[in-house]
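Bench notes, afternoon.
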Amino acid sequence: MRIGELARLSGLPTSRIRFYETSDLLDSMRQSNGYREFSPEAPLLLEIIRRAQEAGFSLEEIRHLLPPAGLAEWPKEQLLSRLRAKVADIEALQQRLAASKSALQTIIARVEAKPDDVDCAANAAQVLADLTRQG
């Protein structure tokens, strides 16, 4: 199938398809007239790429996630290993974000609870000193 048909089927602009092709995520064959010819599995590969990006995979990670010999030759254990590694990365990120959120909420509460008789600079110094002792 040609790039225009692939764009129509996938809903992606041809520029994005060309980008994925030059990024070695999608293969095509050049016909004698110079047109790109994509395999019948190209729409599915584009959907996998799109969903992998939405899940947080980088293009480099996707390049190693996709099967080198086509979807029929996808090594199950390798795929599962990479998917599980991404889940672990996401869980670690969630923990870091939760800790950051908690720290910011603590600072917000401390700033909001500033006594009227303490100026902002003194309160900020006290909040930072307390955070330094805790951290």
